[in-house]
Specification:
The structure holds two protein chains of two kinds.
Chain A (H helix, E strand, L loop, with lengths): L3 H19 L3 H39 L4 H21 L4 H20 L1 H12 L5 H17 L1 H6 L3 H10 L1 H25 L10
Chain B lengths: L5 H22 L10 H16 L3 E4 L11 H21 L3 E5 L2 H17 L11 E3 L4 H15 L3 E5 L5 H11 L3 E6 L5 H7 L2 E4 L6 H6 L2 H29 L4 H7 L1
Parallel strand pairs in B: 1-2, 1-4, 2-3, 4-5, 5-6
Helix pairs in contact in B: 1-9, 2-3, 3-4, 5-6
Classes of the chains: A mainly alpha, B alpha/beta.
Chain lengths: 204, 258
């Protein structure tokens, strides 16, 4: 029963959404809309479980004075500050917005900006011409890099058109091949879930 | 029926017919061969290395939702790998850490790992902090996962699922730590990052073959065979459409618009 009931629910919910995609029916559309509304409620409960996990892990680290426990104190204090100010005063109040705009956003932007350095180090390793394939990759990358930069056209007039060809022909062809196969993979994967062949998400 | 979706409906019905046919054939003893996927073969090696070094194996589940239309099938593959790894780590007493940045995915992941430990009779070894919820914010998740990878000095890093810009940061951190890295995604912009930084990568639809490959369950293998038939037909249709277009006929375009 523990396995059967969720599988039946997954089957019915899945096929309702498929029917909603194909058929113009007010009844189906209204059911589908309700179902999508329920997912918000499920997400809210799941978020509660996530918060419990965070508190559990960090409270234990703090109690044991585990290495880096002070970070847990900062995390829990920040989390409760945002929860309390957000719930009691709304998400437009000055304290909440101050923490969001001056702490969370810049920190997120800083982590995002670090990608530039990671791309540089990853490219340095990837573009070593160790074999024929790697040499082709290196040559293509150089043509695209120079072709896209203003200096490329100054160095050699043909570079922008070569870069465009690489980007628009072999690159697009390979990408579409992967996308079509991935789309069929998604269909297969979804059908496995709907028909109860794939049940690992139930913990089985 | 909505106009413009008839062709999709016909193609879907055709796919379901192949699907059911192959599943029944596979269940009735039809032998289905599956090509080797080195990325999945190396998972055991990665677990073995982590066990020998006495360091944890880390699995990043990213911050995407298991309820998202695009992300769900990839995350389900990540969950299949999670089940496999946690079963092995329970058997071998290896440390396992999964970091999750989405609440819905977290609740499923926790249940899967707990179930694997209970199934192996190791419920006492199961620690709720094995599966850690970090943050729903993309880069807060990334920063926290990178911190955990560094502090715990992971021996192996598994990243199979739906990834966005955090993929390269996580993979470069794993590389800097000297961890064995196995990744897989069908998100096009992230595939080159994984190929450049990881030891083994699953590309595109290989990600959806994970559960069949790990289990060798006949029904799942049957569904993969159906996918291959559909791929061949899609390829033939593309070829016919391209040739027709070259000779001035747009029948394929008209057919797809129906």
């Amino acid at each position: 029963m523990k396995q059967l009931l969720p599988t039946v629910i997954a089957f019915l919910a899945g096929f309702l959404m498929i029917a909603d995609f194909f058929f113009k029916s007010e009844f189906i559309q209204s059911l589908s809309k309700d179902l999508q509304g329920w997912t918000v409620i499920v997400s809210a409960f799941a978020l509660g479980l996530g918060a419990v996990s965070l508190v559990r892990v960090h409270a234990r680290n703090i109690a044991r004075r585990a290495p880096g426990w002070i970070n847990g104190v900062v995390l829990l204090a920040s989390m409760f500050f945002m929860i309390v100010t957000g719930i009691t005063m709304g998400t437009k109040n000055a304290a909440y917005l101050f923490a969001y705009d001056n702490m969370l956003s810049p920190l997120g932007a800083a982590v995002y900006a670090s990608i530039a350095f990671h791309i540089t180090s990853a490219s340095f390793r990837a573009f070593r011409a160790r074999n024929v394939e790697a040499a082709i990759l290196l040559a293509s990358a150089l043509i695209v890099l120079l072709g896209r930069a203003p200096i490329g056209e100054t160095l050699a007039g043909f570079l922008p058109s070569w870069a465009d060809w690489i980007v628009n022909v072999p690159n697009v062809g390979a990408q579409r091949g992967i996308i079509i196969c991935a789309a069929l993979g998604v269909m297969g994967s979804s059908l496995r879930v709907l028909l109860g062949i794939e049940r690992r998400y139930l913990g089985s | 029926m909505f106009p413009g979706r008839v062709s999709v409906g016909v193609a879907s019905i055709l796919f379901i017919v192949f699907f059911i046919d192959r599943v029944f054939r596979a269940k009735n003893g039809m032998k289905i061969n599956i090509r080797r996927l080195p990325a999945l073969d190396k998972i055991d090696e990665a677990i073995g290395r982590a066990t020998e070094l006495g360091r944890p194996i880390h699995q990043a589940m990213s911050y995407s939702s298991i309820m998202g239309a695009a992300s769900a099938p990839m995350i389900l593959s990540g969950i299949a790998v999670m089940r496999y790894i946690s079963t092995k780590t329970a058997q071998m007493d290896t440390q396992y850490i999964a970091t999750v940045g989405n609440a819905e995915t977290y609740s499923v992941a926790e249940e899967v790992v707990r179930g694997a430990y209970i199934e192996q009779g190791k419920q006492d070894a199961y620690d709720p902090s094995m599966v850690r919820f970090l943050s729903t914010a993309q880069f807060a998740y990334t920063a926290a996962a990178v911190g955990i990878m560094n502090r715990e000095k992971i021996a192996a890093n598994i990243m199979i699922g739906y990834f966005a810009a955090e993929s390269l940061i996580l993979a470069e951190t794993g590389h800097a730590l000297g961890a064995v890295q196995i990744a897989g995604t069908a998100v096009m912009p992230q595939i080159p990052f994984f190929v450049a930084t990881c030891d083994y990568t699953l590309i595109g639809d290989e990600v959806y073959a994970v559960s069949g490959y790990l289990d060798r369950d006949p029904a799942t293998l049957g569904t993969m065979a159906a996918q291959d038939i559909a791929k061949v037909l899609a390829g033939l249709f593309l070829l016919a459409g391209s040739l027709a277009m070259t000779f001035g006929s747009d029948f394929a375009v008209k057919l797809l618009k129906k």
